[in-house]
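Two records follow; treat each independently.
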Amino acid sequence: MKLSYEWLSEYLDLNIEPKDLAEKIERTAVEVDSVKRLDYKLKKIVVGHTLEVEMHPDSDHLHIVQVDVGEEEPIQIVCGAPNIAADQDVIVAMHGSRIKDNVKIKRSKMRGVPSNGMICALQEIGFDDAVVPKDYVDGIYVFPADSGVEPGDSVMEALGMDDDVIDTDITPNRGDMFSMNGNATEIGAILNEDVTFESIVPSDSDQSDQDSNEQISVKVSDPVFAPVYKMKVINNLTVEDSPFWLQKRLMKAGIRPINNLVDVTNYIMLKYGQPLHAFDYDQLPEKTITVDKAGENVKFTTLDGEERDLRADDLLIKSGDVPVALAGVMGGMDSEISDGTKTVALEAAIFDPILVRKTARYHVLHSEAATRFERGIDFSSIDNALDEAATMMAQLGNGQISQNTVVGNEVIPEEKQIKISLVRINKVLGTELSADEVGDIFDRLGFEYDLDEVNGNFNVVAPLRRWDISIEADLLEEIARIYGYDNLPSTLPVGPTTIGSLTDTQKIIRDSRTTLEGLGLNQAMSYGLTTIDKARHFIMADGETVKVDWPMTKDHEALRMSLISGLLDDIAYNEARSVDNIALYEQGRVFKKAGDNVQPTEIEHIAGAITGSLIDSSWINKDEKVDFYQMKGVVDQYLQNLNLNGAVQYRATDQYPEMHPGRTANIFIDDQYIGFVGQVHPETQKAYKISETYVFELNLSTLIAQPKVRQHYEMISKFPSISRDMALLVDEDVTNQNILDVINSSKQKFLVNINLFDVYNGSHLPSGKKSLGYQLTYQDSKATLQEEVVNQEFESLVEQLKTELGVTIR
């Protein structure tokens, strides 16, 4: 919230610099984003009064303006604003002045005509476009008649730009600080100063003989929807611009002035933290207001002009059966205040914060009102806010307030009573506070209390404006922050110390990252939330999709069940920016729900995706596109580094719709499924807008649980090795794995390496046959191998291959 130092000074006797005050707020209450002045670096900007306005002889839109700036002679300025006219009080940047962004204004000629300055719009001197009154958004600003400005006056002072604005970031538990009154109370407690509030109450002249209850009735279908709902009717109003002081106050708070009636509701919201809504009474279809849920198939056009399809649970304000407002969020177009409004039905309510938050999030309508309703409203201030708003409307709009208040519902919660002892306070905070010191803190906070002086027990009553105070711990926090966190004694922790270390699981996860990065892959981190459709892509095990009840966007509706979809999104992002060679991996959790379990199961996975080439082309290396076997090699090396106590096997599969059926394999360790590797299906690639991509995904939780071979050093043999090559003619359905299984099962004492160096399938071979070429390496670590020993083992292996697979030696 934007806090005006000038406005705070009306409640408190502030003898502290704004930056120092901001530091105290940040140390004690809530975070402060910034302390700013709108006149920062502005120079020589004054009020000018336009005397004569003539068209430029060489332009159809420029004007030559004679301006009185409080000097002996008027100055001449060429101005292109469409709303420039004679007899206006305007903003003039003199020669040598500085405007927004430190732009310097100099004398110049505009199409041959001298110009001695610049007539400015509000945006040009630092105001945000969103707060500029609509009449002046596309032109220069004209001071209203009640501004009281004179030629030569400082514009910064006239517009209140010399005021310091403290921008606070309110935490969800401190909704009371979403108002000037709440902030003044808090700052008064921090500075130990008395706070003086001023409230406006209606006088006899502000009221008519009419009765609000005869003009309108209110019904709340369920007290939970609106614990408090009240209305007043103000008659015979005139809609016009707000007084200058009110417009300035709203603009500094970041709100655009609209008219005297709407501005009053925004002003009261800032002052009391109580959102109000003003309905054009004559535009209400019926004079019966109902607070109820929308029901099925309801459409409603909000004040921003958007037609919205409402959910059945959205809370509505209805006139008869016609929706006129989204309760606590935004009003409707049909009943908004317009220039012709004569009678206003003014609403002050407290709505169910959960319903308001759900509606605001679903329809992406995070209004100032919704923000306050979500965090809570002060039940004790609603009558003052409603009375003051009605009085201001009557006074600024020359109208009259109908007597009495229409009450649809009023359930005021009881003030919470909390017991706490002085011994407990000092024990928890480590202090030696006396009962008088603690009592003084409660007095500063405005908390009523009774003290049992015998045993030092406090019975504290938390006021309704502090709905965040409910338990002993809350009081301890209040005492600590007002006493000052810096004043609390510092102590070192005591007790036995332990040496920190990583668990086995953490070590494997870190080693996994190191291995994949060593193989040329870069780590990626994707969102755990994705679309419902993508959540079910590349899933390794059946399970229900876990949907988010209130997603922030349509792209984040469900928890992911695979890591690959996020990696493909990353590849698409990079390829869209002309990056061709991409190699990524991600280690993270996937989620699935089984049966009636409320919480989803979280499983650690690791996945990779490569497109293009792993090695960039250079004068010595040519670009080589990744293929299935290169990706399989990455997985092989990774699994080998894990030192698993089991045989790794790859089996072709077509079970994944998103994967190429002829280039995908499931991965097993001793018949236990751990993941898959392969090429993404061309149709899936097209959907993700990516080029040919190869991926893998492994269940890291299963790999962590797998037994490992204890690593030990094996001395490298100093004796020479002997190689034997063989070419095998086999049936086409015989795989490399089949050959390896036979070789590994044979009694080969000195066989240390098997390398498949050739695969041939051509016209020179019989139909249904293929040729596989292997190189077998033999070595003895203790002695030089004899030729006869190698020949004997080799011949034994060949015979076993012939027997079990029916191979033919070529």
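The next record belongs to a different protein.
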Amino acid sequence: MFLSPSSSHRQMVFVILLLCLLVVIDSMFFPSFRRVALFALPVAVANSQATTAASSAVASPLSSTSSGTIASYTLPASIDYGANLIPNVEDPEAKDAQVMCPGYKASNVEHNKYGFTATLNLAGQACNVYGTDVDVLNLTVAYQSAHRLAVEISPAHITAENASWYILPSEQVYKPEQSDEDTEDIDLQFVWSNDPTFSFAVLRKSTGDVLYSTEGTVLVYEDQFIEFVSTLPENYNLEGLGERLHGLRLGDNLTATMYAADNGNPVDRNLYGTHPFYLDTRYYEKDPETSALTLLTGNASTNASYISYSHGVYLRNAHGQEPILNAGNITYRTLGGSIDLYFFDGPTPAEVTKQYQAEAIGLPAMQQYWAFGYHQCRWGYKNWTMMQDVVNNFAKFSIPLETIWNNDPNTFPYDQGKQFIDGLHNNNQHYVTIVDSAIYIPNPDNATDAYSVYSMGHDMDVFMKNPDGSEYIGAVWPSFTVFPDWQAVNSTQWWTESLMKWYQNVQVDGIWIDMSEVSSFCVGSCGSDSLHLNPVHPPFALPGEPGSVDYGYPEGFNVTNSTEAAAASSASAAQASSNSATQVSSSTSTQPYLRTTPTAGVRNVNHPPYVINNQLGDLGVHAVVPNATHSTGVEEYDVHNLFGYEILNATYIALTQTIKAKRPFIIGRSTFAGAGQFAGHWGGDNYATWESMYFSIPQALDFSLFGMPMFGADTCGFSGNSDEELCNRWMQMSAFFSFYRNHNTLGDNSQEPYIWGSVIDASKKAMQIRYSLLPYIYTLFHSAHTTGSTFLRAMAWEFPNDPSLASADRQFMLGPSLLITPVLLPGVTTVNGVFPGSKDGVVWYDWYNQTAVPATPGANVTMDAPLGHINVHIRGGSVLPQQEAGLTTTVSRNTPWSVIAALSAEGTATGSLYVDDGENIIQNSTLYVDFTAENQRLYASARGLWQEKNALANITVLGVQNAPKNVSLDGMALMSGVNYNATSKVLKVTGLQNATSSGAWAKDWVLEW
């Protein structure tokens, strides 16, 4: 297909003419049309404009320094077609390992202080159903902490036949270790049996409930296939097992495939990351007379009393895998590695997540204060002037803007860039750009196509290889590219030095890691013999190019904008007709299914015998192929799911050296368990649809479970044309996520919040709430960083004894104190929601009028929600510290303080505040403030060395049932600034600046009424 530089001109012309017959690949293969990377060679689009000289371009450390080159050759669509595979879960001819395989028998049991070890021997003739059976395994069972049980099964001997076996090393991904704490009180018990073959179970001692049991099934352990099965109760409640778009509760009919894939956001399919952890919550009906517990397996009764117990299960395995959820069981299948299981006893959801994060994967990185401001991005900001116009428009309409991002070609002159970025920094605003994961490799026939980042990486031997030792060359946005090998000893050093050198010219404030699955637009090392063609166009049309114009609009657009919708529908039909007239079908559609037959002692990594339900089919499609090799000899097959984790780790290290002392701000796409230690995550290439808006809620909740609390979706949608109504609602909802960014694709309509008048108003209204709550948000995130607590929370986690909330994911909580009820449907002016805890006397206050909401336990309440209004409620018993909202977080941080105390039915409330400098990794001084309200008094007590100079201005107390006779601060009667509303039951105290002029928390104080 590709010709070497020595091929004749006639051959070249002939091949190019043939390739011209191939049109853009079908959108089913590449719906995820993304931006051209800044950290990449600029790929010219349809107009084939030449790139500017590298000396004047904002080239990242991963960008080409090519001068005057153009993308003159389009890769054929067929370059990314793989073998035609049928997933085993859909294959009627698939072999059932549970029927065919003999299982194992345990022997040589040796007890120790923390558990025991044993040998597992194959209990019969090897089945070799999807690989080569391992004859002898080692079993280790350890009670590792007061809340964690570890069960590990791995090959007993590494032989010549299985020398390539990859057991995930602790140096690569943290492996929980034995603690010194007393484990006698752990609420977990491990039991096992050899009847008829080895099986085990994990029980909760306090209830006798079986949490995990492989009884009645066999263990299958082969070099390319591991299977083990656990029973689950009827109608179980599992959450996690990501990343995928799905409701929060997983249900009992799901194949939860985990294989990092670059292919947009299809529902129920594997996406960018791998998080093999689940939270299991079981509800028990409590007998009011005997207190006996009965496991709930059906619908809950509104009159009954319930209690729940939660536990967590983490499989520390990075191979391609797919837990299969069926009625009554979960079946784990992986393509290699080991069984490295960890059980966490909870017993509440909050305790499970803390145990998982603090003990098993690492706590999330603390973010800089500015990271919680509003971010604006677009694939389509073509130059610094356009970006400055965007910044100016935010200021013009008085809409807060903290950070502007871009991801267009690196053709922005350095001198203008410095002026633009300096202007941002002078206004306390920030700049973030994209870094793609593939590195441009220069055209050897072009003497000017030199790229020092590649040359240095080549000399330091930091790129993945083909099996023959040559560099693996795929194709991504920069054209033909190589890929960093994070197992190479010099890779992090090279990455750091490249970033430091680039930073001298472009003072970014953070890095956005993209394409890190790791993605490639061709199957195999397609550039090995074709570098003379560089730079090349991707094998599909970019958004906006002929045949790839996006005419999609959100649901309901045809009602609110009927004329535009009709025109878009007509244009879309015409484009589809034109494309179909010349479209060449994928070669896989007419091929028979490939079924790989195992060969004893031989691993087929490109097409393993067991076919996981990967959304892209062939493991090498739109990805580096599995037989690419690393410097350690490990194949990509064994570590594919770790590339995103490793590049985030390397980038974190690089930024600590580049932007010294500051907390690195990194947002990454592909992640693995523990990636939250380094970065946050965005939801990937979503769509401008109401469905995508909804799915961002359970996706955000999942990433709270996964230890990545810094999460946000592309607000208003990435792909497709947003409209006023959708963007209005979405800008308001996203204001309550930790990472708040609007971002959309090239060629679609602009969707900055100032595009529509009503969106301006809606955005400012929601941002006013967000920015005033930045102290609460920052404190909440610090708690996640130090304890593993969740940031966004499902109602079921905050109210764990209410089984009616198990599937609730259309509302969510921001920490323990705020309930958010967004509108998720077009054309409506009301929204339904529940007020959890009402049965137990929890009081909820409307954010806007500050009055208590009348709520019936279990009732689905209809609330007014006109366009531009999002329902926010404060949980009684909460104290919220606030500052005034500004156009930047810096402005907000320098305003007077206020406090809202929302009293419970008993008249009590608690809260906290954490303050530091907001940017440095190591803090010289910090401040903690505790708030407590009881007996008509609100106390504030501070500890720490941070000197907070801003005064306290206002205190608002909600739920004050009787008009106070006297109001005093620290015993001094307040003669002015006191207002009590007998209707709303709200006490407002204003004008406290003089009394607190030395600082709101300079001394402890008490407000009494």
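Discussion point: Residues 1-69 have pLDDT under 50 and may be disordered. How would you locate this feature using only the token line?
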